[in-house]
Structures are given as C-alpha cells and as structure tokens.
Structure prediction request, 430 residues.
Amino acid sequence: MRDLLLTAIVFGSIPFILRNPFNGLLMWIWLGIMNPHRLTWGFAYSMPFALIVALATFTGMLVKVKSLYKFPHDRAAIALVLFFFWLCVSPLFSFHPEQELEMWLRPAKILLMCLIALLLVGTRDQLHKMTWVLALSIGFFGIKGGIFTIATGGAYRVRGPEDSFIYDNNALALAIIMSVPLFRYLQLQSENVWIKRGCLAAMILCVISALGSYSRGALLALIAMGLFLFAKSRQKLLIGLLIVLVVPMVLYLMPEHWFARMNTIAEYNQDASALGRLNAWWAAWNLALDRFPIGGGYAIYEADVYARYAPNPDLVLAAHSIYFQVLGQHGFMGLFLFLLIYGFSWLNGAWIVRNTKGKVGLEWAHDLAAMCQVSLVGYAVGGAFLSLTYFDLPYYIVIILIVLRTIVRQVLAEMGRNGKLQQQKEVVLA
Prediction:
C-alpha cells in the first residue's frame, strides 16, 4: 500500500512540476531529506524517484526558462560553486580511483540541485514553502521519535530510515535538532492558533527525540542552540520558561544508562568511540599535510590509507566530523571552501538581522534569518562529531540565507526610493 501511494504521489506531481519547476524542487527536497521510499517494503524501496523528479524539473526549467531567477551575486553562492567544482578535483588523485565515481555521485547530485535552487527560489512565498518542506521532512522523524521515546521511557535509541544519510542515531539527532529553529520560525509567522500549537509540540517532541537518540554530539549541539536561540528570540521570557519547564521533565524521563553515556563526554580518553574518532582525525590531518592541498578523495577509509597516516593503523573508522571529513577527502583547499560557504552564510544572516530589525513588513525576514543562524550553530557544533558533510539540510539553509538577503536588499532599496520620493513631494508642497 505504501509503495502504491508513494508512486502515485511522485508520478502525480509531474504535471505540476512541468507547469512550475519550483514544485519539483520541493519534491526533490522531500525525497532527499525524508527518504519516504525507505519507509516502504516493496518495489518503491529502490525506485529512482529522485531522478524522475529531477528530470521533470529540468524539463520544466527548459520550458519555463524565462521565469527563472538570475543566479545571485552572493559570496556564499560563489563559494558553493567553487566547492562543487573542487569536489570534482580531489577524486582524480584518489588512492582508490575505482571507488570514486559512485561515492562522488551522491554529493554531486545534492550540490547541483542546491545550485539549481538558486535559480528557482526568489520570493517570500517560495522561501516559506521551502521552510515548511524542510521542517516537516525531518520533523516527521522528530515527532515520531519523540513519541517513541516517551512511550518507551527512553530505553531504545531513535534511528532514521535505512540506507539514508540519517539512519545513524547521531546523524538523525543532529538533523532533528536543526529542524527545531525552522519550526520556531513557522510558529512565529503562522496566524492560525492550531498551527502555532502544532509547531510548539513539534519542537518539544524533536528535542525529546534528539535526546532519545543517545547522541552526545547532539546534546552539545542542543545546548549551543538553546543558548543562541534564547539570545536571538523576540520572546525571551517564553523561551526561558520552556527551557526551565521542559528540560527537567525530559531529563527525568531518560533512564540511568542514558546519563552514563552522556557522562562519557568528559571521559573521552577512556571511551573507545572517542579514541577511534581521534585516530581518524589524526589520519585526516596527516593525509592533508602529505597531499597538500588536494586530499585523498572519497575513498580514504581503507586499511592501506590508515597504515600510512593513522596513529593506530588497525583502527579504521570514518572521521565522524564534517571538518576532518572534508580535510581528509578534499584537503586544506576543500576545507577552506567548505568553511567559506558557512562563514559567508553566517554573515548573510547577520546582515539580514541587522538591516531588518525594527523594519515594518520585514519581521518575517528577521525571524527566518535568525532561526537559520540558530540551525547553523547546531550544525557547526554537532557536525564536529559527525560525518554529515554532504547532507542536504544545511546546504538548503545556506540557500535560504542567500535568497533572503537578495530579497531584503531589493525591499530596502525600494523603501529607500519611496522614501526619497516622499521627501521630494514634501519639499514641492512646502
């Protein structure tokens, strides 16, 4: 039944995609982030739905080429393009070139569609719809996982769909945490009281779900996000009361072994998982130094590579860090471009918040930029302990901030022109 329903939804969306390629982007985001096909058990499990949607989107773009937006002249957008091209360079110098194509295709498709998004998104309404799809695609697992955690008393770890970026409990937890600020923005901008309450419930359940994942990195990200969310919120009293009331209740819910796992954060030198990550980090650092500035390509988590660069060559593990993953795979140049994307995105958010503060009619932009910044804080902190470099969600937050800055700049320019015209009229009348 699930297979038939999902197939009907995807193929039924094609006429709407051809009519408006932006619908194709929304479908791509839903399929890529939520992975609904991984929740089926039959033929739909391995159906190339994303490819079908992408082809329909490209066809619609060719038909509607005049309605596309211009590629934005933005520093973060340029850094994203450069990073995309650099991902094509480092695999050419791989230790295992026969493995590179398959491993390259997945991030290449994701980044290519992000660049396409810059041509398809250009209005407030589109940003709002995009935010809803992002929030609900991840929020589905957050709400479901939160209910599961409450029902089981936190006895089991919350995981995502198999064969996806967010199957691992740690990856899912970080993705869920990043969706919380998006729900907060939607809550602030919704006039319907039930939608507001629904967004509040989603935020609480997402936090419970993240804790129920037993992810230590997610806990650190949650703390960092909570502090920044409090600082950025227009309703500090409400956020403060929620933290004071909800956190003790959630912690009371968690079992003894949850606290035992969280306590290992301070005892990393005695934890096998932490020691394995440190070994992988040193391997990435040594590799990047030796093959400056290119790195070793995607296929670096192999015994022969670790034999050359790891302190403990017998402990072959993934980097479990967005920073060291990029450093090992794409070298210092790749890491520089990666940090540049998010650095410029952060500056975009700061610029929007600063220039929309107190501006009537731009409160929505202020809230969206601030919440995107909160989400990026979670990614920056939690990503330090997870190999989630190529996951779609943070890149779409980058896209939102790029497009949002373009919109705000245009609105402010229009307001400035209107203000000058009003002054000229007043001078004439005087």
Summary: The chain has two domains: 1-68, 69-279+281-420. The longest helix spans residues 392-429.
